[in-house]
Amino acid sequence: MNNKGLLIILSGPSGAGKDTILGRLFLKNDKIIKSISATTRKKRDKEIEGKDYHFISKDEFNDKILDGDMLEYACYCENYYGTSKSEVEKLRNDGYDVILKIEVEGAKQVMNKCGDALSIFIVPPSIKILKERLFNRGTESEKELELRLDRAREEINCAVNYDYIVVNDDQDKCAEDIYEIICAEKMRSYRIKNIINEVLKEC
Ligand code: 5GP
């Protein structure tokens, strides 16, 4: 039986609450995992190399592009971010449902390359709340915050290109909704055709 895991794109503007939602999804199911991206952004104080990101230089990032192992990559607010194709494939082949927590340009690349990827966009209930969350987080300078807010408006415009849009006005409800979407997606008939074949063999 083919137990290959799902490929799940999770996007949403900075401050939409993606990390909190991911934390809740991991608690619900330990076969859901996040792909660890490479980035040229500076590490934040609380971040851990290899857990939050692989923090690398611009030269190292370019080398990865040249190696041809980037499933997708994009420049976001002056830094580069990208996903390793081989790491994602390995996790999926080991049966994990792999979440790519990526911005909209990279998401578009994955949608074009991987027709069976599930895509979900998280929106904040309002720009006012998004601003409050970003300011309270305190991880960016004023200039970076402005860049992220400009980018947020552009990103929200792309939400309609995703399979699902989930509003994050209640973190528990948002995580539950996303979990249910993932569970339903796993039961799509074309994904479990092989089970039917197994059952029919016994007839
Ligand atoms: P942050 O700097 O806040 O960690 O991430 C900034 C943005 O980059 C977020 O929207 C995040 O989802 C996105 N991002 C993180 N990793 C990747 C990646 O591998 N590829 C792309 N395209 N975007 C990413």
Task: Spell out the blueprint of helices and strands.
Elements lengths: L6 E5 L6 H11 L3 E3 L3 E2 L14 E2 L2 H10 L2 E7 L2 E6 H9 L3 E5 L2 H10 L4 E6 L3 H11 L4 H16 L6 E4 L3 H16 L6 H9 L2
Parallel strand pairs: 1-7, 1-8, 2-7, 3-4, 8-9
Antiparallel strand pairs: 3-6, 5-6
What is shown here, in short?
The protein starts with 6 loop residues before the first strand and ends with a helix. The protein has a domain at 7-36 and 96-201: Rossmann fold.
Which descriptors apply to this entry?
alpha/beta, Rossmann fold, 5-stranded parallel beta sheet
Read across the widest sheet, the strand sequence of neighbours is 2-7-1-8-9
CATH topology of one domain: Rossmann fold
Indicate the percent of residues in helices: 40-55%
- Could you state the order of secondary-structure elements as H and E? EHEEEHEEHEHEHHEHH
The CATH homologous superfamily of one domain is named: P-loop containing nucleotide triphosphate hydrolases
Overall 3D shape:
globular
What are the low-pLDDT stretches, counting only 5+ consecutive residues below 50?
none
Measured by DSSP, the beta-strand proportion falls in: 15-25%
Structural class: alpha/beta
Q: What ligands can be seen in this structure?
A: guanosine-5'-monophosphate
Mean pLDDT over the residues? 95
Number of helices: 8
